[in-house]
């Protein structure tokens, strides 16, 4: 097992390199960038101000330029050059023998574009020592932003995964025992319908029904805590937190519990039809003893070992929609905003961190398999 884990660990860096290279190359062909995003913001503010001031001062003949609004005049070329240098797209080169501070205003200094491949390898070198830089727009380091948003996403992922297991394991076992009966038929139909409902639609449905949309106002609509959270007692804080997390957890659990239920059922059916189960029944053991004393441990192998992977899937795949719908300030919302704003340090820094976490959890899943069932030998299979 040690040699297998070592081989998997040796593949982590090449895999991460490939992930970063592909995504970095894609950004070179996507229209727009952080500079264009800043220009669009300034132009949008300029247009809005021009419309407001033009309408209010039309009789006086004044415009935004007359009022000295700098956004209406756009961004100067010098400022654009400074932004490119600050964001790492360009660098300042000065003539040999220059001893002062590099400055674009100095005639001896010029601005030089940094090639894409050079920027990529510098980024990879920084990421290897976990230096993710600072956000272009939030004035915070990427590490601080991720740490700040991480508790919300982890909380949502853990509760959703636990809820999925609490529902799926008993339901899957029951469906396996009642295979082919009316119970199995109608629960399968309900599961298929649940799987077909998009997370976005189900979230809207929950909000309309239980968050004051059109029917009952039982749960809050936004945030993870109430405004007076800090003034509550310990018990009050726990209840307030559970009250807020209820609807988002149910919404994100829908698709994961469906897959896990079918996995549990099929795993139990495979074990029930094996020879050792027939032998246990022939010895006169009760059905519950056969099911939970013999079948359960073997059937739950793949279900238990899949916990890290399921948690990771829930954490990253459904967090964007749920966090946006319920106004939860987590990693999903952070990633979406960074992609829209072309905040590359946040985009690539979070991508690198999530990719590393995914690869490590994949290795942990394999280790979990061997701990649950020592008969599994990945090293022998790999050989």
Automatic annotation (TrEMBL):
One of its GO terms (biological process) is transmembrane transport. Belongs to the binding-protein-dependent transport system permease family. The chain crosses the membrane at residues 150-173, 185-211, 241-264, 299-322, 351-372. This is ABC transporter, permease protein. Gene3D superfamilies: MetI-like. Keywords: Cell membrane, Membrane, Transmembrane, Transmembrane helix, Transport. GO terms for cellular component: plasma membrane. It is a multi-pass membrane protein. It is found in: Cell membrane. InterPro entries: MetI-like (IPR000515), MetI-like_sf (IPR035906). CDD domains: TM_PBP2. Pfam families: BPD_transp_1. Residues 150-369 form the ABC transmembrane type-1 domain.
